[in-house]
Amino acid sequence: MDQMNSEPQQMSMERNIEEMYHNSLEWQSEVSLWKQELKFFQKMLDTYTAKCLSVEQKQQLSHFQNLLIYYNGELLDQFKQQSRRHAKYLAHHMEENTPFNLDEYQQKFGGMSSHLSAFASEYRRYKKDFFSLMEELIDQSLAEQNKMEPADADCPPEM
Known about the structure:
Elements: H1 2-48, H2 55-96, H3 102-109, H4 112-148
Helix pairs in contact: 1-2, 1-4, 2-4
């Protein structure tokens, strides 16, 4: 009777391990996308820093630059390494069909999912604020360009 109960539990645990493994692969993909986005954000910062006029904008740009360096240079690399180790750990258990020790797993990887979720929320706020500032700087830049161009630049000269 105990063996009949343990088989469904074993199958359930295998499904959970597979699900955790796929989650880990998704995390790796998400981290790669974030890193790619941050490269683009750096280009935006490089392009529009010169357009920055006010002290407040300069402070905001400095704040975004510092966060970008921290995210791209440290935090996302840590997440990528953790998710790779996580996937490798789970793949080993799936391939070798070894017993899964939940305590060991929690010790090694407990909290990883919540850390990634918390960062995802923080990163969404970062992007929202970043895009707002970039929109402001782009609008300023366009306004400056329009001031410099003659009003009749598109019209042919009268004869």
